[in-house]
Design brief:
The chain is α/β, with parallel strands linked by helices. It is built from seven helices and eleven strands. The longest helix has 25 residues.
């Protein structure tokens, strides 16, 4: 018990201030973790669409072959006592390329500790953002087959155009994106031109391939148009209808496309205007891109503390 000012049984003790000497180097691990956390926050920020266009495939191989097989022929009628026909298939593959990319963010612990503006942590977050933006650019421009030096389609190891009239997956600029009828035109073109030539019916010839696209991909220039088309609850007079038959109907996209179509846009397609494949920002793509493209990931994002 401390009795201040007591004459006989107490004593006076001068209070001492308890001080903890915390320097800028007291918690190096915590400081490093704080920087790493901000980098990851920037990398994980919303607003990117790359993950909607690819399926991530973990791998530990370089120059990998992604192997597949041609489609098996379907069943045929077999008469009594007649031998069954073989259903054959062949191997096919595409190849991948890899690149390791990174940066060092040189910040002293003192700079973080004495920073009164928060700019150091903002810069760390910016590093994560530009890293994610680089990944986004590679994916979006690769999916859109923007330019020959960035092509990602390598059948049998040879870089080729993915979208071309000869591949029956490219329509001319005579099909601008205006309303749902333009998407219907793509469906009709697919039904008539994209055929399974590996299986030929004696009576019907080559057969169509069932296709359920999920994404309408555009430049930001067409983002509003694309969003209006896929989200409309009603549309106007069907094409070919007379004035007396004018009517409002439910959005046909929600009927003939199972699950509907989502509109995605990227400024990397606006910036690609005039490229050898992507002519201008009014181009657009319709497809199920996750089934078409893989992002091979040997190492995911790593944030490591460098030695002094």
């Amino acid at each position: 018990t401390l009795g201040f000012g007591m004459k006989r049984f107490g004593y006076v003790e001068t209070p001492r201030q308890l001080e903890e000497a915390v320097s800028s180097t007291a918690f190096p691990s915590a400081t490093g973790q704080l920087i790493a956390t901000k980098v990851i926050e920037g990398y994980s920020a919303p607003g990117y669409i790359g993950d909607e266009l690819v399926t991530v495939m973990p791998s530990n191989l370089r120059g990998e072959r992604v192997v597949g097989f041609t489609h098996l022929q379907g069943p045929k009628e077999v008469g009594e006592g007649t031998a069954y026909e073989d259903s054959t298939f062949e191997e096919k593959y595409v190849t991948t390329t890899e690149a390791k990319k990174g940066r060092i963010l040189s910040i002293t612990e003192e700079a973080v500790y004495f920073d009164q503006t928060g700019q150091m942590l903002m810069r760390a977050e910016n590093l994560g953002e530009v890293t994610r933006a680089e990944r986004e650019r590679v994916i979006v421009r690769g999916v859109a087959d923007v330019i020959s030096t960035e092509r990602v389609y390598r059948p049998l190891g040879t870089s080729e155009k993915l979208y071309a009239a000869g591949n029956n997956n490219l329509l001319s600029t005579d099909t601008p994106l205006v309303d749902w009828t333009d998407i219907q035109e793509v469906f009709q073109y697919h039904a008539l031109n994209v055929r399974d030539d590996r299986e030929v019916d004696d009576a019907l010839g080559t057969q169509p391939i069932i296709w359920v696209p999920k994404i309408l991909l555009t430049a930001v220039e067409l983002a509003g148009t694309a969003a209006r088309i896929v989200s409309a609850t009603q549309v106007g007079t069907p094409p070919g209808a007379t004035a007396t038959a004018a009517m409002l109907t439910a959005n046909p996209l929600n009927t003939f496309v199972a699950g509907g179509v989502r509109a995605l846009a990227s400024p990397y397609l606006d910036a690609a205007e005039g490229a050898d494949q992507w002519d201008d920002a009014s181009d657009w793509l319709l497809g199920d891109f996750k089934k078409q493209f893989i992002w091979k990931e040997i190492w995911p994002l790593q944030v490591l503390r460098a030695p002094q």
